[in-house]
Amino acid sequence: MATFAAGTPFLIDPSQRRETDRLLAEGLLETLLPGVAGPPGGAGRRQTRLVALALALSPRAVSRAVVSELAAAWIWCGGDPPDVIDVVVPPGRSLTRPSRPPLLAVHQRRLPPQDLTALEAGPVRIELTTPTRTLTDLLRLPPSGGLRGRIDALAAVPGVSAGGVATCLDRMPRARGVSRARAALVELLGAAPAGVASVDALAGDAVGVEDALHPPDGADHVVEVRGVGHLEGEA
User: What is the reported pLDDT for 44?
Assistant: First the structure.
């Protein structure tokens, strides 16, 4: 019998794969990420997604990398889990890619501190790109099947604005996909209305309760820690 704490995501043990598959087939569990399962409906809570992602990453990756792109979009907005977890490390650093799923894509780039934040759920703490920076990064990617849904979800996050995305793009003039992102930005969000702040301005203080920005998600124990800035410089 597969054993796990009720209501808690867990790594799927290969020795208990048959029992886990049975529980998944009966709807008693759901797959949160490749190799990580949890209670049905858990993926709808940001707290559960955060814990699942921490399980999928190595402790070294959790402590040294910033979650970005589709993986960050999944944390912020939910939806289908990513097949690949994108993380950012400073130039010159590297991470060992795990032999088990999910796959890890390691990007070496510099991120300005205003594009970073951290979320905490109990003992779990993960650094990731802000919703505005995450949307900016997705707009720079080539179009693909499920990308538009993630982009639309991020664009709907309170505080995300065309002006905030444009500011992110201004900080990375030589980055790949900037022209594509600028062209998509007008269609997606239009001109930034006067007086609409970015999500960074809405967060304000060094420490704030993240679910105050996103109450419908139900992540009542997720705390956003502002002021993360160990990856400095331009994108």
Answer: 92
